[in-house]
Design goal:
This protein is α/β, with parallel strands linked by helices and about 500 residues long. The chain is about 60% helix and about 15% strand. It contains 18 helices and 15 strands. Strands 8, 9, 10, 11, 12 and 13 form a six-stranded mixed beta sheet that branches. The chain has a three-stranded parallel beta sheet with strand order 5-2-6. Strands 1-15 form a two-stranded antiparallel sheet.
Length: about 500
């Protein structure tokens, strides 16, 4: 691909409409055709996208080989084979999985999801595939909490959107305790281990599985009658998928295969694993490197696009045209004035339904990071340009050199040197910001760590390893930038 020369860019800048069209075309070309693919009818090809929360062992999690496994995943795969259709698993958090189905980014959701009257208003459910219930658990050495009455004035931890959270909410006023909510089970358990909360309310099979894996908890209450789990699709859509799920589920139960799957994950010894430090390091290192690779891809691609956006809108910000200045200011204000998390949700879950398109999580992630970092790069470029003495522009203009040639040949070369430290700093910030994209299911380094912790519950060791990896990468980038900066600055007077 040929890079446009500076005169070509200058020609575009003279027309705001042509420039905006060029920027849009650039973004669309870089993120690929996935963004513009029309929403697919699920019946075509008999392949369905199913969203899930892959941090909810034993119903869905990632094993040591990186495969998605669990009661939900195994049931879904067996039903798909029985009914002759294909499944693509879309790993998201629980809340994001529900939003993906509502936004028609996924055909269905299976995530240990309780069938409730409220959810029936939004989703169509399959026949129940698991009868659940809720239990309360505390640390093994806790001798003070033995019943709900002992929770008065204390805090308990729950996971968002679960039956355990709903049950805790229903009795909190009666027993006088406070609730703190988390996005995943491992964080909920860690909350109690830190001493900030005294108990958890969780679906009994999840507690059972994690206690078997030696997470240091014990149950102290009988199982409360709970709701049933069901597979769900968006209201009024994918009725054929729902029918196939029900038919396949019935055949699995009749054949006895359903009981075998349940026993595999909830039977005695199902949770045994090697969680020693050496065993943990050996089993997780390949997955962490895969997550790091995705983190670097997201960062490099996004910061490259952000640099181009920063140059364009940075020139807008110092332009003599009030229209261009207004466009540049609006862009910066929007993307610096809203949280990156909100931008990710809006671009991934909001834009596709509004425009009638389908967008991959990777595409949405790159667009989000590029637009967000581009706003900060715009200010870096503006500051770099304004740091150059105004006399440089005046001298060039007095010699008869035009505004744009002066900007290109005199001002920008000097400004770039002052922008390098800020540019590298933004690179580091963007690298760390990739962790936020875990909310839309991108398996970068942080999300990979969460998936591993959901399986082995070794939070302290895993977050320590992940922190060290981030530190090594960021320090390497910083040292590299220092060398580049020293060479450029050192060559300034030559």
């Amino acid at each position: 691909m040929r890079v446009e020369s500076a005169p070509g860019i200058a020609g575009v800048i003279r027309s705001p409409h042509r420039l905006l069209a060029a920027v849009v075309a650039m973004l669309l070309g870089l993120v690929g055709t996935a963004m513009l693919t029309p929403a697919r009818a699920a019946a075509e090809g008999e392949t369905y996208i199913v969203a899930t929360d892959i941090t909810f062992a034993p119903f869905e999690f990632q094993d040591e080989q990186g495969k998605f496994v669990g009661i939900d995943i195994d049931l879904l795969n067996e039903i798909a084979a029985n009914q002759n259709f294909n499944v693509t698993i879309k790993p998201l958090g629980f809340d994001a999985a529900l939003q993906a189905v509502q936004a028609n980014q996924a055909d269905g959701v299976i995530a240990g999801m309780s069938i409730t009257d409220e959810r029936k208003k939004v989703f169509d459910f399959s026949d129940p595939y698991f009868e659940s219930g809720v239990q309360m658990a505390v640390l093994e050495d806790n001798q003070d909490i033995k019943s709900y009455a002992d929770l008065k004035g204390k805090r308990v931890a729950v996971k968002n959107g679960t039956e355990g959270a709903a049950f805790a909410e229903s009795i909190k006023d009666k027993y006088g305790f406070q609730i703190v909510s988390f996005a995943d089970s491992s964080s909920m358990f860690e909350e109690v281990k830190t001493g900030n909360s005294v108990a958890v309310f969780e679906d009994y099979p999840v507690l059972n599985y994690n206690i078997q894996r030696g997470n240091g908890f014990k149950t102290v209450t009988p199982k409360e009658k709970g709701s049933s789990y069901g597979f769900a699709v968006n209201k009024g859509r994918n009725a054929e998928l729902l029918a196939k799920f029900n038919a396949g589920l019935k055949e699995l139960k009749d054949s006895g295969r359903y009981d075998q799957i349940i026993e595999k994950y909830l039977g005695e010894g199902a949770g045994e694993a090697d969680n020693s430090f050496i065993g943990l390091l050996k089993s997780t290192f390949p997955f962490l490197m895969t997550g790091l690779k995705m983190t670097l891809i997201l960062t490099v691609v996004s910061i490259a696009i952000a640099l181009m956006l920063g140059i364009v809108f940075g020139l807008f910000r110092v332009s003599r045209s009030i229209v261009l200045r207004a466009i540049g200011t609006t862009y910066v204000d929007i993307f610096r004035g809203t949280p990156l998390l909100v931008q990710a949700f809006f671009i991934y879950f909001g834009v596709p339904p509004a425009l009638g398109i389908q967008m991959t999580a990777l595409t949405a992630g790159i667009i989000t990071l590029s637009l967000n970092a581009g706003a900060y790069m715009t200010e870096i470029v503006r500051g770099g340009i304004q740091s150059v003495d105004k006399g440089q522009m005046e001298a060039a203009r007095s010699l008869g050199i035009g505004y744009l040639p002066t900007m290109r040949k005199v001002i920008l070369p000097q400004a770039i040197r002052t922008m390098i430290p800020s540019y590298v700093n933004q690179f580091v910030i963007t690298l760390k910001d990739t962790s936020i994209l875990s909310v839309i299911g991108i398996a970068e380094l942080t999300q990979t760590g969460r998936l591993i912790i959901a399986r082995n519950l070794q939070s302290f060791t895993m977050w320590l390893i992940i922190g060290i990896i981030y530190f090594i990468v960021i320090m390497a980038l910083t040292k590299l930038s220092d060398r580049i900066e020293s060479r450029l600055v050192g060559g300034r007077g030559k």
